[in-house]
User: Which sequence fits this backbone?
């Protein structure tokens, strides 16, 4: 069984399940306040599998499919089917959890703060793929020009950081950055030589 396809299928299924059930969606949202003060720890995982709308879902799942396939194949080639698949699932789920650390620390006493979506987990997968394959070419949504991954990564992070500092959006830029950091650290722990390879390409 392909773990990438399973994750996408489960996420799409949960989207349509919660689309017409706002009460269920509300119980799955990421809420640092409710996690801290009421022990609703399930929100740490459940929030990764729900999305605001079809566009939000489509963008995350398309990004996950294309970059997830790259890094999953690399893991399988390097570690075998079973171990490579497990490593990929750990990258995705733990990456999603790690991406929530920053928002949690900022909003743990803010009852009104809510978030949802797989963006942090997807960001972990994207940056794991970038560090593993810095030579591949990627395209940004607003700039449909092929860019080497070793340039795409720093540009993406710079844009996310600027957007986070500027504020005035409903996008969890801090979660995107957190997921990216985890993806990078995850690959460096698995194979430190990938960091050297990335630096060689960058300079």
Assistant:
């Amino acid at each position: 069984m392909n773990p990438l396809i399973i994750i996408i299928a489960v996420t799409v299924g949960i989207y349509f399940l919660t689309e017409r059930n706002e009460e269920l969606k509300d119980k799955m949202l990421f809420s640092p306040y409710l996690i801290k003060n009421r022990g609703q720890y399930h929100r740490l995982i459940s929030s990764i599998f729900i999305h605001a709308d079809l566009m939000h879902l489509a963008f995350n799942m398309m990004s996950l499919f294309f970059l997830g396939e790259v890094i999953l194949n690399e893991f399988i080639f390097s570690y075998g089917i079973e171990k490579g698949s497990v490593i990929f699932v750990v990258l995705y789920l733990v990456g999603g959890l790690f991406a929530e650390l920053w928002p949690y620390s900022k909003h743990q006493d803010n009852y009104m703060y809510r978030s949802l979506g797989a963006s942090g987990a997807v960001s972990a997968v994207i940056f794991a793929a970038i560090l593993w394959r810095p030579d591949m070419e990627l395209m940004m949504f607003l700039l449909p020009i092929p860019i080497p991954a070793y340039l795409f990564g720093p540009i993406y992070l710079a844009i996310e950081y600027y957007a986070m500092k500027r504020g005035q959006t409903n996008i969890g830029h801090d979660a995107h950055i957190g997921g990216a950091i985890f993806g990078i650290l995850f690959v460096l722990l698995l194979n430190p030589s990938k960091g050297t390879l990335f630096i060689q390409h960058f300079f």
Summary: DSSP finds eleven helices and two strands in the chain. The beta strands are 137-140, 143-148.
